[in-house]
């Protein structure tokens, strides 16, 4: 079975529209199994996204 992934996502840390937490909640709701946050020139939102992802198995 193929995994559902998105390897190009942005948060408010660059040019996205969602906070890292909101983004994680959305991708879980959509059933994505693997994601990559690719904000431009920053890793500012990664710690928040990592913490938010811990809530989901």
Produce the secondary structure layout.
Layout: E1 5-9, H1 20-29, E2 34-37, H2 46-53
Parallel strand pairs: 1-2
What's the short version?
This protein is α+β, with helices and mostly antiparallel strands and 57 residues long.
Provide an overview of this structure.
The protein has 57 residues and is of the alpha+beta class. The chain has one domain (5-53). Helices cover 32% and strands 16% of the residues. It contains two helices and two strands. The protein has helices at 20-29, 46-53; strands at residues 5-9, 34-37. A two-stranded parallel ribbon has the order 1-2. Strand 1 (5-9), helix 1 and strand 2 form a beta-alpha-beta unit. Helix 1 (20-29) crosses helix 2. The longest helix has 10 residues, at 20-29. The model has no long low-confidence stretch (mean pLDDT 96).
Descriptive labels:
about 55 residues; alpha+beta; 2 strands; about 15% strand
Q: What topology, given as strand order, has the largest sheet?
A: 1-2
* Total beta strands: 2
Biggest sheet statistics? 2 strands, parallel
Order of helices and strands: EHEH
Strand content: 15-25%
- Name the helicity range: 25-40%
The chain-level structural class is alpha+beta
Oligomer: single chain
The radius of gyration computed from the alpha-carbon positions, rounded to a whole number of angstroms, is 11 Å
User: What is the global morphology?
Assistant: globular
How far is it from the N-terminal to the C-terminal residue, by CA? 19 Å
Number of helices: 2
Number of domains: 1
Point out poorly predicted stretches: none
User: Residue-averaged pLDDT, rounded?
Assistant: 96
